[in-house]
Amino acid sequence: MIAYVKGELTTIDEEAIAIETQGIGYEILCASPFNFQDELHKEIKVHTYHYIREDQQLLFGFKKKEDKLLFAKLLNVSGIGPKGALAILGSVSVPEFVSAIEQEDEKYLTQFPGVGKKTARQMILDLKGKLVLWLPDEDNEQTIFYEEDLTAKERRIRLDEALEALKALGYSDKELKMIQPELAKAQNSNVDDYVRQGLQLLMKS
User: Fold this and answer.
1) N or C: where does the chain have the smaller number of CB atoms within 10 Å of the terminal CB?
2) pTM of the model
3) Which CATH class is domain 65-134?
């Protein structure tokens, strides 16, 4: 799994950007590619989601890690594909979206392209309570994390990325749910450690 790409931003078009690193150009699909306009021909780092299917491999890019993680969560919702998830991220901030989910605001959610009442309800059912780390603090309008300290937050982010990497390797949601409680007990230092431990648990199950 490609977690991020760091290199020179060489081109921008309506759907994607291209980053060259060590002589290789990576085409990265983005919600709003021209948001990178000020960084053209400069070295940048883009958080990426490596989308793997039998007939295609695509890289989706994000300026912020929370955007990438929300994208991954949206892909797990029935009725939401990569284009739909990207369209949502291109038209709303993460805290605004999370607030709509927590408030069960179906009217707000159905404003996104391709999202009807059924899909909006499915998003609420699948995501409510799982994205509270991105809720805004009403006092200072800064994104804060409730219920867990920073160390726990970082562990959860690493665990989420590892589970997405294992899913990209072909493991089912059912298999990953079986190992998640045990994997969550670990305090690994990086995503790769979580992936390695996850593979060990999957081989035992």
Assistant:
1) C
2) 0.65
3) mainly alpha
